[in-house]
Structures are given as structure tokens and as C-alpha cells.
Amino acid sequence: MTKATTTHDQPPARVAAQVSALLQDCNDCPIRHRAVCARCEADELQHLEEIKYYRSFEAGQTVVWSGDRMDFVASVVTGIATLTQTMEDGRRQMVGLLLPSDFVGRPGRPTAAYDVTATTDLVMCCFRKKPFEDMMLRTPHIGQRLLEMTLDELDAAREWMLLLGRKTAREKIASLITIIARRNASLNQASMGDSLIFELPLTREAMSEYLGLTLETVSRQISALRRDGVIVVEGKRRVTIPDLDRLIEETGDDTDGGFLI
Amino acid sequence: MTKATTTHDQPPARVAAQVSALLQDCNDCPIRHRAVCARCEADELQHLEEIKYYRSFEAGQTVVWSGDRMDFVASVVTGIATLTQTMEDGRRQMVGLLLPSDFVGRPGRPTAAYDVTATTDLVMCCFRKKPFEDMMLRTPHIGQRLLEMTLDELDAAREWMLLLGRKTAREKIASLITIIARRNASLNQASMGDSLIFELPLTREAMSEYLGLTLETVSRQISALRRDGVIVVEGKRRVTIPDLDRLIEETGDDTDGGFLI
DNA sequence: CGAGGAGTTGAAAGCCTTCAAGCGCCGTGG
DNA sequence: CCACGGCGCTTGAAGGCTTTCAACTCCTCG
């Protein structure tokens, strides 16, 4: 561990502990203005502080299993989590990709409907469910924000359905890489145009579960995009996008309609 | 037109006109207790009455095109509508199937995000958008109910994603028929066990857009399920399910986990 | 009666999956 | 210290499921 300039080089558990130690105060929270609490006033925030607690997970850990009791709802603070459904014979489909500020759990439902897994080191801001539900009734700001976020998720799910139902394997891969690139740009406030180098936060297998493909097909299509110069890959995970428009052409989406980021 | 016992035998436009004529008063509304207004009190309902109006569409008509201005939000009162996305080259994927009581449109968004089409004769209860948005701010009951409905839709979308990403053509068809059967049972309050005869409300093409298949594959798989005795088909649309458990086995879903209906 | 829409079915092609083998990296334990 | 084993990933070859292209039926409507 020669260079310790970024948190990336530190052991995951330590980083998570640091993050949660840093985050006792909602005012310092990195997702303060995007999460379910975004619209809360100072007094409402104080109420939330009383029922919140942080939990950390290492990459690969399961947060909850589908069907398990779930006594909390939560926001992703840092890291990435996934929601996955599994069929009896083991076929798996990812149905949610949760980034910082995204919300986990459903008020009013006692059990988890999906497997929730940390795909990177993960810190979540959890609220005990019952107090949270009570607070939702008294605090319209929370319900309003949650509605907004849920509508956004529904839009994303519908975009995803188009991908799953109608796109080719190549288009699926191009779409996923574009999504990750955009997300990265938005998190880093990058000026969109440079920052097109990033680390894929998903294994080939996780990508295949996202895209409704096998991991072999994912691997082959990534290789194909690399061969065709659409992307540049260093090692297994580091991706550079020399020409974003070229990549977007490969997604099959409208070239113009890009109102997102 | 010898037997006119049910509305099915009447010209669509007339039925729609009848329905909307019957429905000036929210208290007589068939979706009063399931739609976005479900939790409203008498005074709130009165407010809604002032900003509502009915619109009728014949089977096949387009309600709005993706990208068009949309000055209203609405509830489906009777009939079925679909939300569909289209790619540049014409590939289409249905992303929403709207039944009576389902909500159309997004408060706060000026344009339609999807093509909305009536697949059967359709009556919608429309609210002018601006007044509706204003009312949402003053009336938590509406926002609360809308959140609940949106969360349900998100769950449905995620189930659908599993279907699109991981199920075989045969499983997709069995799943769709099961969904329609359940819906029918729930609308007719049937005692679940008999009423397993119904009309498919979708063309083969609409089914293919729902399932991410071609219409030929839909046709072939329906024929295969018929050959195997899983379903009985009279004419092109009328389906009988002799053994629902058998059909459910064909969906690939958990046999037990059926908490729906 | 002809035209057109909805649906069915056959044959061939194609895309993705399945099955297999192999590479490179990393942590463990002899 | 180094061999071993596992994991993540890549690549090849064969097979299969769905699509594509095409022909044909049935029914409705003008």
C-alpha cells in the first residue's frame, strides 16, 4: 500500500467505518440534497437523526434476502447495491441498481421483495421502519420526495424494459456502459466531455444479470466493442470512452432525445 | 346483434358515451375505491369533480404520442390502455398495461414519455394537470395514494423485467395469460376457480410487444400450449383454463409464492 | 367480390446460449 | 518462497431457441 492518496487503496471495512464516523450529522451528508430527506427542514431533519443509524457492507455481502423480515428502510450513502430476483431454477435478473441517494425498502411492507446485495463497499443510512412510517404521515415532505424518486425509478425501469425486451447484446452492453459513464459524470460533477475514464463497478456476471444475458456474451460483446474502437479497456474493469457519441450510436437509442445529464 | 344482454355487443362509441354519461358523480364511479382518489373525503372529492372530465376512445385509437404536450393526468375508468416505447428503427416495447383504476401521466412533467394507446374501448377520467398538481400539494391523501400506486407499478415493472430478461417464450406466454386471468378474476370478483374463461384483450401483436417477442412466436407458443392442453382456445381470442395450477407451472414462477389475488 | 387485417404455420437463418478449455491474478498454506 | 486453488475473465465450437421471410386461411367490411 504505497500510495494512500485516495480511499480506493484502503481496506473496505476501514473505509466504511470512516465514512459512517464522518456522517453523524445530516448537514454534512453527501446525499443530503438528493435522498428521501432532500426536502426536509431543519426540525424534520432532527427527527430523522433520532431514528437513523448507519450500516456498512463489504463488496459482495448480502444486505437482505428476498422474503426476509426487514425492519428498516434506507438510503444508499456511498457505494452501489443491487436488487435481484431469482427463479426456482436459479436464473437471476437484476431489477434495481442502487446508487448513492437511492432508496431501499418499501414503507408498509414487512419483508424484502428482492435480494439486496452490495456490489461495492457500501454505506447505508437506515431508518427504523415503524418510526419512519409514522413520520411519513406527519411529514408531507418525505412522502413528496419519495413519490418523486419512485416515479423516477419507474421511468428507469421502463427504459430498462425496452433494453431487456428489444435490444441486441451489443446494444445492451453499449447502453450499460453509457449509463455508468453518465452516472459517473453526474456524481463527479465532471464537465461531461473529459471524465470518460472510469472503473466498471460490476463484475461480468453482475452485468449479465442486469442485461438479461450470459456472462460469456457480456465478455464477448465487450471484446467486440473494444476491437471496434468504441471503448478502450485497461485490465478488466477500467474503461475509457474516446467518443461518447459513437458509443451512444451503438446503444440504439435516439441520438437526440438525450435529456438525461 | 340478437342478444344485447351485455355491453360487449354494442358499438364501442355508444358504450363509451353511456359510461361517461353514467359517471358524472364520483360516488357512482366503478373505480372510486381503487383509483388515485381512493382515499379522498367527500369535500376533497367535490374539489376533484370540478377539475375532472371524461374522455372516450375506441379500440386502437392513440390517446397521446410520446413527446406530445399533455395537459392532463387521468385514471382509466373502463377498458385497457398501453404505454409503449419505440426505437428509431421501429422496434417497439410495451412498458405499461393500464387497467381500470390505473393512473396515466406524471404530475410535474409537461410531455408524455410514452405512446398511450387504447387497446379496447376506453373511458378515462381526466384531471387538468395544473389544478391537479395544486390540489396534490394541499391534499396529502392524493399524494399518499399515488405513492402507493406508483410503488405497486414499480413492483409490477420489476416482475416484468424478470419476464423479459430471463423467461422463455413459452413461459412468457403462460405468464401473460396468468396475469390476464388473475386480473379478470379480480375485476369480476369471481370466486377464483370458475371464471377461468375470458377474452384476450390484446392482439397477437400487442402481446408480442408486451413480451419482447415477435408476433409469430406468440402465435406458435399459444398453439403449443393449446396442443399440450394447458389452455383451450375458441376462435382467436376466447381462452379457457382447465387447470390454473398447470398453467402456473408453465410460467416458471414459484408455485407457492402466489400472494397476488 | 376484392381488399385488408388478424392470425397460423413452415423453412431457413441468425443470435445468443451452452459446454469447455484456458489465462492471469491473488491469497493461502506447505 | 513458491506451488496450488479459486475467482474473474476470455475465447472457441456446437447447439438451440427465436426471428425472419413467406405463404396461406379466415373473417370483416366496403
TrEMBL record, chains A, B:
> What domain of life is recorded for the organism?
Bacteria
The entry lists its GO molecular-function terms as: DNA binding; DNA-binding transcription factor activity
Q: Which GO terms describe its cellular component?
A: cytosol
Domain HTH crp-type residue range list = 167-245
* Pfam name, any one: HTH_Crp_2
Q: Does the keyword Nucleotide-binding apply?
A: no
User: Where does the Cyclic nucleotide-binding domain lie?
Assistant: 36-153
Recorded hits in CDD domains, A to Z, give: CAP_ED, HTH_CRP
Entry keyword set: DNA-binding, Transcription, Transcription regulation
Full protein name: CRP/FNR family transcriptional regulator, anaerobic regulatory protein
> Which species is this record about?
Roseicitreum antarcticum
